[in-house]
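Example record used in the benchmark description.
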Amino acid sequence: MWEEACCRKSTADNGWKLYSGIDPFCLAGSWLTDALNTNIHTYEVAGVFILVEQYLIDKLCDIVGYEDGDGLFCPGGSFSNMMAIHLARFQRDSTVREKGLYQSPRLRLYCSKEAHYSMEKAALFLGIGTDNVIGISTDSRGCMLPDILDMKILEDKETKGFEPTIVVATCGTTVLGAFDPLPEIAEVCKRHGVWLHVDACLGGGVLLSKKFKHRMAGIERSDSIAWNFHKMSHANIQCSVLLLKDKGLLNKGNGLNAEYLFQPDKCYDVSYDIGDRTVQCGRRVDDLKLWIMWKALGDSGMADNIENAFKNAEYFQKLLSETEGFRLVLPEFQSTNICFWYIPPSLRGQMETKEWWEKVGKVAPEIKRKMTVQGTMLIGYQPLSSKNLVNFFRIVILNPLCDFCDMDFVVSEIDRLGKDFIP
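Model output (structure tokens):
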């Protein structure tokens, strides 16, 4: 009973919603930066934090393969994606800084149909327009199809008069956890002279593991990458990084040299006044918590967290495939996202007609209601319209404190909550 209670507590408390648990070293860094309450825009008010940020950006660029890269910490992955799109537009047409959109060509942004909704958010915010976000079809795993991407770009250039500007590849899609094929997509971008941004907010953590980093092979060919350490790497929210291959682009695209902040004749090297590289003025310190955690765990410890999540995901996937009443959405998953249906006894052994699937679609919402009311777990569900899939459960396994006992509990608890359900 005591062991079961421990499993129940870790499962319920840590959830399965992309963010889970607390790293004590990361928490200590958060407490310290909150206590000091400084803005990370000039060296004179945030000297050591600016040095820490530059150290981490250099380390991450080295991991990605940007020989002379740059970057900054951002308030979330959506902001990182938006900043990348903004800079891609600036590189395409630098006059947009002064003249705005009035004389600009009609730009196009391409991403998979499984990409994060922040691409459309960025398009509406930046004036590109959501109609100019072109969703590219995906294969059975949810990975972008490069041939379709190439065809869409060529069609826009030659027959529609659009200006293809940026392709966003996703490494770790929100629902299926798919990794787009970066080498093939990079070839398409090179052929058409289009910026390649990689949204690795969820899946970027695989770069820290020798065992799984092959899932992002070709990342060095990208122009920018968004990477959230508060997801797969288990840092405290928020801890998001934007990395760029071009070292000077942040200053060129965003710098305004406000004289009341960024005076050129200060008594120190003003290249350390990094606030002008972003569109923000006030920016919280998000680097120290990651630095402290990384120093405490080391490269091997950071990799262990990633590999433990994949180990749990592999076990969970096998458990589902062997347990009556559960059905996987895919035969296998590329990330720690595991998607599945629960088929209650009342629906088993029947013809799988359209009406049957409609009934299956009602199962997950009812089980979710029960688990929420009883407080045992918090697991998300959703349909996937792009694949004509009705509601299914989606678990994203990230918490390094979880083990096989937790995986067992999830299956038994869903079965307990759903076995008497009659849609």
